[in-house]
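Dear Dr. H.,

I hope your travels went smoothly. While you were away I took the liberty of generating a structure for the chain from your last submission, since the lab meeting agenda had it listed for discussion. I wanted you to have the full record in hand beforehand rather than looking at slides cold. The sequence, exactly as received, is reproduced here:
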Amino acid sequence: MNTEQQEWLEQLETKSRAKQEQFMNDIASKLRRPRQTHAPTQPFRGAPAFWTDLEWDIDKRIQAFTDNFVSVGAHIARVKDIGEASDFIATKSHELSAKYIIRQNEQALADLGLEEQLSDVQVSVWNSQAEENWKARAAEADIGVVMADYATAYTGSVTVLSSPEKGRSVSLLPTVLIIIIPIERLYTRLGETLDRFDEAGRENLPAGIHFISGPSRSSDIENDLTIGVHGPGIVYGLIMG
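The corresponding predicted structure, in token form, is as follows:
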């Protein structure tokens, strides 16, 4: 870059900064207060103590999670153990005339025994065969079954992590999503989940952290609400334990 070009760029920079200063000064004038040129001192960082100390008992957590989850169009059921969860999924599969189910590749979900329960339904396990196009398989599935890693009562949301065995597509692409939520993974505040990721450090973060708070809800500029456009239109949460 020659000297003439450098001087021209410096002149443009000077004019731009002058316009920026005038713009900000005009705003301060209209607000009738001095122009603030330095970031204010923040005496506190993070959530206040009263919030980090908030902890509900298990009954209140279940009730709050249920109320919040159902309020956005999802469904909740209580199951005692993995056997009852399996029975629920089998019943729901028959009700919906499901032909194809996909689940995450976890031992706890293998214990559901869906293959034995649903001999007339194709049950696939995510990433169990290297040559398979698993995103396409998930998109064709009537029901996706996942295990919640965490759940938050205050927000009515479920946290599902991604890994080679736990593809995001299992919870995103099927028509119906069934989430099993072990009761010991249901917490009061979202911070109880997020703190775990901070403690783990960047190098130990999962491939994806996904928050699910009910069926897909999309609204256009005219506020026309459509369910199921960008994810499952029907979501069941099974609180287990």
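Two observations you may find useful: The CA atoms of residues 144 and 171 lie 6 Å apart. The longest helix spans residues 3-31.

With kind regards,
E. W.
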